[in-house]
Amino acid sequence: MAGKKSKSKSGKKNDDRFVCRNRRARHEYDILDSLECGIVLTGSEVKSVRDHKVSIEEAYGKVERGEVWLIGCDIAPYPQATIMNHEPRRTRKLLLSRREIRKFAEAADQQGLTLIPLDVHFSDRGLVKVTLAVARGRKLHDKRENLKKETAKKEMREAIRARR
Q1: Beta-ladder partners of 40
Q2: How far apart are CA 105 and CA 100, in angstroms?
Q3: Which PANTHER family match (predicted)?
Q4: b (16+ CB within 10 A) / e for 136-147
Q5: Which is nearest to 130 in space by CA: 56, 44, 65, 78?
Q6: Distance between CA atoms of 62 and 92, rounded to whole angstroms?
Q7: How far apart (Å, rounded) are the C-alpha atoms in residues 120 and 132?
Q8: Which of 33, 49, 161, 37 is nearest to 107 (CA)?
Q9: Which structural domains are found in the chain, ordered by start?
């Protein structure tokens, strides 16, 4: 059901579930596969994520020694944490099963494929999750072609709506 907003058990809309989205990812990459995974955070990082002080625009995933790491994710320091504050751009471990890591490691080893975070959100239980995607970079002419297709689809939808 695309276009409808999901509701939680209490009846409230789940719009605040998403903390941050990587809007450029779908423009600059062809998304081949995506997977939701957990992330290891400290207490002050979780507080900053709850305040929506996170950016994944320049972040990417990397597989090293059988573990997946998120590199370049910027989580702003939490102002109330005075003693135990965190480093904003440290590498953070992503939590995946061995089977998922193997699958992603094989995909990441292929030439032209990269691991891109698509969004940061909260699960139903309140845990911070990252949607990680295996993606292939687009060339400039592919981006232009895609924009033309999207514009054409949008114009057709508007024309159909205007006829009704």
Answers
A1: none
A2: 8
A3: SSRA-BINDING PROTEIN, TMRNA-BINDING COMPONENT OF TRANS-TRANSLATION TAGGING COMPLEX
A4: eebeeeeeeeee
A5: 56
A6: 10
A7: 9
A8: 33
A9: 17-138 (2.40.280.10)
Report pLDDT digits (tens) over 39-93. Answer: 888 887 888 888 888 888 888 888 888 888 888 888 888 777 777 777 777 888 8
SS (H, E, C) the chain: CCCCCCECCCCCECHHHEEEECHHHHHHEEEEEEEEEEECCCHHHHHHHHCCCEECCCCEEEEECCEEEEECCEECCCCCCCCCCCCCCCCEEEECCHHHHHHHHHHHHCCCEEEEEEEEEECCCCCEEEEEEEEEECCHHHHHHHHHHHHHHHHHHHHHHHHC
Amino acid at 21: R
C-beta separation of 81 from 43 below 8 A: yes
Q: How far apart are CA 139 and CA 107, in angstroms?
A: 19
How far does Cα 108 stand from its chain's mean position? 17
- The amino acid that residue 162 corresponds to is A
